[in-house]
Design goal:
The complex is a heterodimer of chains A (127) and B (244). Chain A has 127 residues and is mostly beta strands. Chain A has helices at 13-18, 77-83, and strands at 4-8, 37-49, 56-63, 66-73, 95-102, 109-117. Chain A has one domain (4-117): Nucleic acid-binding proteins (OB fold (Dihydrolipoamide Acetyltransferase, E2P), Beta Barrel). In chain A, β2 and β3 form a beta hairpin. The N and C termini of chain A lie far apart (29 Å). Chain B has a single domain (28-83, 90-215), classed as Calycin beta-barrel core domain (Lipocalin). Chain B is 17% helix and 27% strand. Chain B contains three helices and eleven strands; from the N terminus they run αβααββββββββββ. Chain B has helices at 2-24, 49-53, 71-83; strands spanning 32-34, 103-107, 111-116, 120-125, 144-150, 153-159, 177-186, 189-197, 206-214, 233-234, 237-238. Classes of the chains: A mainly beta (127), B alpha+beta (244). The interface between A and B is large, with 64 and 59 residues.
Chain lengths: 127, 244
């Protein structure tokens, strides 16, 4: 239920060299994200912000008796739309699984890698 | 009525020539995006993020032949940005040609305009004009671009570019001279072969090719930097502001 797992990903030397300086998104660099790590969050959507310069999924993630509030950063609406996302792809109350590159500072946030419904169906996949 | 006839007669030949020229120009309609693996970090279910990271991430961040005396500036430039990252509402040239912004070509005989999703327009003048003289030109983020067509290839000459603030590409001097050969090698594909000459920063000309793919979008919807900026810089570090 409150599964939070992490795993080291394979990363090429170029990524190690430049991860701190490449703007992974249009608006800022990826320096705050640990692009060498992925974390899977299972939780309930509290808000989907379809906004510029970045969309965000606000996710309530149960952890023990507590509920953690995570902010999952995404690309701009047009960039997501081109990839198959819609502003209605996720809604408050939806139970979803999100894979992220977490914040380096340990705060409850990260850059999205992928998202899926509770039954594992990819969200935002171009059909 | 007479005025109409005079106007028509006066411009007819020129208009006909322009129409013929127009008809010979390529059709690059649609919305394009750099196809270099860089866009993988925007979130796409069913897309192999990690697999994509194993590609050359950014063409313009490849190994440029920097002069020995310039290389320390490049290292300092990258280190400074990594240690104190900032935010940008736009991209400098040539980085904009490999940015996440989608764009469309607007091709006319006199000019090709690249209209970017960040509400920016790159003007490439193809009417035969020259670059302005030194007293009338100054370095800007995108410089001054003039071009001409060689068959289906748009050849672009750009000068007077300010050094970039984001290390998405090589750190160059204001003496850099850029030559692009933009063409459509196959349907749905565009490529920009970019050659950079910079007597201050580079030991020799450096050529890279940025690929683009046609998106399925039928229109460009523009972005904005300030609508919901949740990335304050606190103590010199980028952060994500908590949700509501």
């Amino acid at each position: 239920m409150n599964k939070i797992s992490s795993a080291r990903s394979r990363t090429v030397l170029a990524m190690v060299l430049f991860a701190g300086s490449l703007p992974s998104l249009a608006h800022h660099s990826s320096a705050m994200f640990d692009m060498d790590k992925v974390v899977t969050l299972n939780g309930t959507v509290t808000e989907f912000q379809w906004t510029n310069p970045h969309c965000f999924i606000q996710l309530a993630v149960p952890r023990g008796a507590a509920i953690e509030q995570w902010s999952v950063e995404m690309g701009a609406p047009i960039q997501l739309f081109e990839r198959g996302w819609k502003r209605s792809s996720v809604k408050p109350g939806d139970r979803i699984s999100v894979v992220i590159h977490p914040m380096r500072d340990g705060s409850k946030g990260g850059a999205i890698v992928s998202a899926a419904t509770a039954d594992g169906t990819p969200i935002g996949k171009k059909t | 009525m007479m005025l109409l006839v005079l106007a028509s007669g006066g411009c007819g030949h020129e208009d006909s020539a322009r129409v013929r020229t127009f008809a010979q120009l390529p059709n690059w309609k649609g919305i394009w995006i750099a196809d270099d693996g860089y866009m993988s970090t925007l979130g796409l279910s069913g897309f192999s993020e990690q697999k994509n990271l194993n590609r050359s991430l950014v063409v313009l961040n490849g190994k440029a032949p920097f002069r020995p005396e310039w290389a320390p500036k490049v290292a300092a430039f990258r280190a400074a940005y990594a240690n104190a990252p900032g935010k940008e509402c736009g991209f400098y040239f040539p980085q904009v040609m490999e940015s996440p912004w989608m764009f469309q070509f607007l091709i006319t005989p006199e000019e090709t305009a690249l209209i970017f999703g960040g509400r920016e327009i790159r003007h490439i003048y193809t009417d035969g004009r020259k670059h302005l003289d030194e007293d009338s030109i100054w370095a800007t983020p995108w410089g001054d671009s003039i071009g001409h067509w060689e068959g289906g290839t748009l050849v672009v000459d750009t000068i007077a570019v300010q050094p970039a603030r984001m290390p998405l590409g090589p750190l160059l001097s204001e003496k850099a001279h850029f030559t692009e050969r933009i063409r459509m090698p196959a349907p749905g594909r565009i490529e920009d072969q970019l050659t950079i000459e910079d007597p201050v920063a580079l030991t020799k000309a450096w050529t890279v090719t940025v690929p683009y793919k046609l998106t399925a979008l039928d229109r460009l919807m523009h972005g904005d930097c300030q609508e919901n900026d949740r990335n304050p810089i606190i103590d010199g570090k980028l952060t994500i502001a908590p949700g509501h």
